[in-house]
Amino acid sequence: MAHQSTPSSQKALMMELKSLQEQPVEGFRITLVEESDLYNWEVAIFGPPNTLYEGGYFKAHIKFPVDYPYSPPTFRFLTKMWHPNIYENGDVCISILHPPVDDPQSGELPSERWNPTQNVRTILLSVISLLNEPNTFSPANVDASVMFRKWRDSKGKDKEYAEIIRKQVLSTAADADRDNVKVPTTLAEYCVQTRVPSQDSSSDLLYDDLYDDDMEEDEEDEDESEMESF
């Protein structure tokens, strides 16, 4: 059997993982499911402060195809989520993860779909944005979509949607304890760029251990500008 060279997708994923470890997206923690498998990532999402998801610890898997970045990965929540754009099995329905085919039925423009210039960083930012601002035009969970619209249109007077989310947030505390993770609840904690200290300890990251009070000014400015984009 002929020797096969390393697929370009592995090289691309290795570079992305390194970039995300050196300059993380705030509110996320990323590790490999298995050290030897670059195609399966585990993501922990911290609920952004001042939203319904504040204090939440949500786990998900990103699974990459062999021809990445030419085809999009899949993003599936392991934590139970009640959301207009998340299927019952945890799969996230979002334009950026759909192949760039022309499908007039979907209501999506090809430009909104996946293309090889997208990356994990843009996916993570899209997912966190989607949590706070669901797309109710083509819902994956119709009941959650109806409930969200009632909550939004009543300006919070119809509390059913918000109460379900808060219950789910509270139920994630046990997972955070089990994983030895301190969930950020203030904007200052949330905006900290968590750095991976070394390859072999990356699977045991503690959010609070990586807090750096002496963070450089330019990093703080960068964090603030990213938060403003939400």
TrEMBL record:
Biased composition (Acidic residues): 206-230
EC number(s) from the headed UniProt entry: 2.3.2.23
Pathway assigned in UniProt: Protein modification; protein ubiquitination
UniProt keyword annotations, A-Z: ATP-binding, Nucleotide-binding, Phosphoprotein, Transferase, Ubl conjugation pathway
Catalytic reaction list: S-ubiquitinyl-[E1 ubiquitin-activating enzyme]-L-cysteine + [E2 ubiquitin-conjugating enzyme]-L-cysteine = [E1 ubiquitin-activating enzyme]-L-cysteine + S-ubiquitinyl-[E2 ubiquitin-conjugating enzyme]-L-cysteine
CDD domains the record matches: UBCc_UBE2R (cd23803)
Region (Disordered): 193-230
InterPro entries: Ub_conjugating_enzyme (IPR050113), UBC (IPR000608), UBQ-conjugating_AS (IPR023313), UBQ-conjugating_enzyme/RWD (IPR016135)
Catalytic residues of the enzyme: 93 (glycyl thioester intermediate)
GO molecular function: ATP binding; ubiquitin conjugating enzyme activity
Enzyme class: transferase
Domain UBC core: 8-174
Family: Belongs to the ubiquitin-conjugating enzyme family.
Protein's recorded name: E2 ubiquitin-conjugating enzyme
Organism annotation: Gouania willdenowi (Blunt-snouted clingfish)
High-level lineage: Eukaryota, Metazoa, Chordata, Craniata, Vertebrata
Primary gene name: ube2r2
